[in-house]
Amino acid sequence: MAKLIALYKHPENKEAFDEHYFKVHAPLTAKIPGLREMKVTKVTGSPMGGEGKYYLTCEMNYDNLDALQEGLRSPEGRASGKDLMGFAGDLVTLMIGEDA
Fold this sequence. Notes:
- The protein is an alpha+beta fold.
- It has 3 helices and 4 strands, in the order βαββααβ.
- It has a 4-stranded antiparallel beta sheet with strand order 2-3-1-4.
- The chain starts with a strand and ends with a strand.
- The model has no long low-confidence stretch (mean pLDDT 97).
């Protein structure tokens, strides 16, 4: 299993971020070919106290690295990436991982 992991820092306007993320971006991302599962987590705090560094995380699971890369190169993957950079390019960190 390969996954694309997105970590989002706290946006200035959380309501506007949520509106766009859940009504526009997540539905675009869900259409990417090969995507098996998408898990979104709102971070509620840090074990050390406070709100923590990140506001939201998303794990997008694919069968393998080839399927992930093919999905990102698809028209749906490109549309999701373009949208991401438009509304959260300065907030997001993306990583690729594989289950150990």
